[in-house]
Amino acid sequence: MTNDKKRMPWLSAFYLMWRGKAVGLGKNHRAKSLWMMSAVIFSIAGPIFQFDHSQTYSGALPPEVPMIKTTGVFVRYVGHVGLKAMPYILLNADNGMTYRTEDLVAPKGLSDLGDVKPPVKVYVEGFLLNNGSGSFYPLKLTTISGQYIVSSDGLMKQLLIGRDPFYYKKSVFLFFMIFVSWCGAIFYARQLRIWFYRVNM
Fold this sequence. Notes:
The chain has helices at residues 3-6, 10-18, 29-54, 108-114, 129-132, 152-163, 168-199; strands at 68-81, 84-93, 98-102, 121-128, 136-143, 148-150. The chain has 2 domains: 3-54 and 168-199, no CATH class; 68-162, CATH 2.40.50. The radius of gyration is 26 Å and the shape is elongated. It is an alpha+beta fold.
């Protein structure tokens, strides 16, 4: 048998690990194969999740969409979809309207206001994401006397980061998990190829 035939292709090693049939890895071969499964899942599902999350920030920006300018109070509210709890920040505006912001979308200053007891009246300017069908997002947030609670530049920066699915600071953890998972998968795939070579010498 030639040396080429004695060696297991890398793809074959990865495939056997993916199927949990890499018996050449020994007694705990299924557990070791989880590295391969994790690498594939993180590599595919991770970017999809980040892209999907960025869509909650999508849509046109002012002045292409109308600005909402009002006073009111922010309160935290926990709704339910089936058995799943869904936390929101609600703006109970003095104009009689109630605007909702998903907890995951709410910028830091807004999230903090939702926890203040009793609620504090503020002045806010913002708009609705997803072209009017999404969460309320503030672009200006001040006290009634005009003092900034959060800088407008800071609010806009958080919005632009949220809209970018692959902003580097958001992606560091994902890329780290992908890298570590593939290192583990490659290490055990190499062990599997070594085993295959030895039993076919």
